[in-house]
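As described in the Methods, two query proteins were run sequentially through the folding procedure within a single session, without resetting any intermediate state between them. The first query and its resulting structure tokens are shown here.
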Amino acid sequence: MSPEIPETRPDPVDAPVVTTTRGPVRGERRADGSCRFLGIPYAKPPVGELRFAAPEPPEPWTEPLDATAYGPTAQRRPFADVTTIPEPTIPGEGVLNLNVFTPEPAAGPGEGLPVLVWIHGGGYVAGSAASPWYDGAAFNRDGVVLVSLGYRLGIEGFLHLDDAPDNRGVRDWIAALEWVRDNIARFGGDPAKVTVAGQSAGGGAVQTLLAVPAARGLFRAALSVSGAVTRPDGPEVARAVSRLFTARTGRPATAAALRDLSDAELLDLQDLLTAPGPDREGLPPMLSLVPFADGELIPEPVLDALTTGGAGAGVPLMLGFTAHEFNLIPAPGPDGPPLPALLGGLGLTGDRAAAFAEAYADTEPAGHFGQALTDLTFRAPSLAVADARAEREHPTWLYQFEWNSPTTGQAHHCLDLPFAFDLLDAEGVPAAAGPTPPRALADALHRAWVAFVTDADPGPDWPAYTPATRTTRIWDTTPRTESDPLAQVRRIWLGE
């Protein structure tokens, strides 16, 4: 059953203290007996000379650090005026912090609990680990430690700069996972039983980490929820984005030129970079500031590494998407390009366009653009990864979330998260899922996540994905498994 997010006890005598490798932290005990430790720094604040540098361990401290409130967020403004997931913006410099939710900190040596490390979404330019949708109450109830982390976003995290290390946001993820390795046993977790997970950009982060040699050994399993990995992806694309940045802003793409700008000034430059325009030809259609293959930290494009290389070999992976991720995005109005031109820009021409129109004949043409974005960004790439891993006998489980929200009539982006976290009573859930989302669906989906984090296998009701069966879990009012329900997506987008 869905827990009410427990309130904390006011008695400071009961406040738990855990000594990390850098110093002690004081958290708070909740009404159900579990504990949370919020805003723990895993790296120094990325300001001044460190703004565009690789993360460095925080300075040690001796007195207990107050860890009873969420720390600063890298998000300085939300992705939109209204977002499906409530995503608080918290000011402050120490944005490289994380939160630990645990049933009970470790009192001494003993077998630790499985750990879920959560990376938030937000298109790599927004999002917040302080969201109430990421509370660890239900996972704690079911014997799992949950860690959520913040990381550098946008220009600070992902713009290629000639005088700074690339993929700084990726380096932040690795630094946080190293903190988990070194400290989570003190919070009751087992560093050998870590599952890294995330949604949207966070799901892309999970797939990226599978392709990063420096992340090997930091987690034993991976869970990519609506993972967004862009193509094309490589140093030449990253340099093209940097050249576009300079052309549009007049600023050199260097840390020296950007280090002393205010957050507002940097966001204004970011808006100029990411705006649509004809000079974006050859660049990814939506996301500009994203992880990319730099030849060092990320040796090759992530999707290539996962589909043609050996990345992630032996690491159990659960991945999937909602049926209508971006279907709510309308095609441009009468002054914009015609729909065939828009679809052509996404690669749908000739026979493929005809096959797409036939496959979605029951969908209003105005909805074809959003469906094409859904397929191109989420469903086809994840399907390609699942197929490639299955051919190599890497343990893989694929799903599609199909329950339609009564507020939109669709299984839209982010809708699955309150079910997976078993937080149907959290702030913002009724607006996304209606007043009475199905309890049985949350029970089943959350139970599968707990099983996967605990045993690296979601359980007997969900067989692994294989070339012979292509078994896919369908999350709906009555969950079920089907054999290759996404065959038309494969034919249209992958040519198989």
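Immediately afterward, the second query was submitted; its sequence and tokens are:
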Amino acid sequence: MSAEISSPATVPAVPDVERVLSHNFRALARFLVFRLCLIVTLMLGPVACIELGVVPESTLTVLPVAPGLFVLIYTVLRLRFATRLFACKRVLRHYPLTYYSRVAKKEERRKVYGTVFALRVSIRGQHGAPLMRGVDAAGSTRWPAGFDEGGWVAGDLPYGGVVISPTSAAMLFVKPDDWGKLELRRRELGSERAELARRARVDKGKWPEPRFS
């Protein structure tokens, strides 16, 4: 592990990667269990009540089925976050954690599958950090707590990687907002870092909308 601040007393404790992964997998599981219970209640509850003779069959009785279908579709779309969580796990297996003292949110956009944040990860006092896009690995739509104290990064920012909150175990999967703009910088990093990015599968710039500019 490494840190860019010279005084060890100012650097937060290095997070336990396995604990962070476990925390995020549990958070995603809780989200899915809650949504599954809600879907079953809305879509199957009215049918069960009619079959048991608890309520009469009518348009009003089956009305909750429509929002239940909406919640089902929304939940399936949100499962895209599950792929980000596995991507984070892969990155953490290939890269050590490095402390950056500044993680600044610039913008956020709500999408049907969650919230995408625009952020810069840098060393406080330095300039030129690329604009990144990030999503919460466990699917939360809120900006994670703890990034006002910096963040632990696994990966290579011109390629992308993972940013972990030093206090809350929250984790963002990040990629450059403008992949093409950093092409020259990636070439300058050399073949060894390119190969490491390939093994961690962060060597491709394709990531669905939105772009921040």
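The CA atoms of residues 174 and 206 lie 12 Å apart. We note this only descriptively and draw no conclusion about the first query from it.
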